[in-house]
# Entry
Amino acid sequence: MSAANQRRVVLVTRKTRLEELVVRHNTLAQAKFYIEHLGDDFSDYLKENEAYATSLRISVEALARWGRYQLVDRMMLPNFVFAPDDIVVTLGQDGVVANTLKYLEGQPLLGLNPDPARWDGLLLPFQPGQLHDVLPLVAQERRPIRSVTTAQARLSDGQTMRAVNDLFIGPRSHTSALYELEFAGTSEFQSSSGLIVSTGLGSTAWMKSVATGSLAIAGAFGAAAGGSYAPLAWDAKELLFAVREPFPSRGTSMAVVFGHIERGRCLMVRSRMPESGVIFSDGIESDFLRFTAGMTATIDIAPAQGRLVQ
# Structure
């Protein structure tokens, strides 16, 4: 075994829709009855599961020829410890790449598309059949790497959370978020449906919908054209934040509803929510930080960039 092959490869997997249904309904027959009772096509779940199983088998065979490897379900990522020299591989949709990247500290990540006929895979440039040939090049640092800027939220109690696409700060349910926002020398109390903080990668997704929707609504009310929305580069040294549906009142303002967070210029948010405040990242609502009254969150650019193998 060469020195390069001594590096551990961590393969991050995810359950298919069919596997999640079986967990919920106990048996395959009950899962089939549930889906068909709703009028859905159960055969599509079977095809997706079969394609994923085939891709997983091909990937594991490549890793067995490689040497040291470990399989980790993405639900275990918050508790998994990556070694500094690990090579990380994901098998799933783009979301698995994002959910994995935020737990890394510079380790290269290689995204495999388990079903190219089903998923476009913006972050999945490789297929399982290529893994055997690509891994040695990654280990020898002979593959191009694309850097991805990530965001982080640091709470006053010492907890932190990183995001590859975006952070959400607000209430767990459809209620008002109450907080004090401080940015660029301005501080004000606000009431809204929460804040979105976006990275360059995430600026093509949730933030884009927030911005384009706001521009369209403003135009519908006759506001003068104020320009168009342009996403950031993936490695941009800045973040974007937007306040969703700010509500002005006697006790709340809306002077600061959008801005650029750069190194040395953080966004500070102090919670005024008695019990329902949370912070989560990349759409994973189940993995959240409690953000209740008296807590302060400092939002800025994370020290380490993500590294995607191309």
Summary: The mean pLDDT is 93. The helical segments are 17-25, 28-37, 42-66, 94-101, 131-139, 206-220. The first strand starts at residue 9 and ends at 13. The radius of gyration is 22 Å.
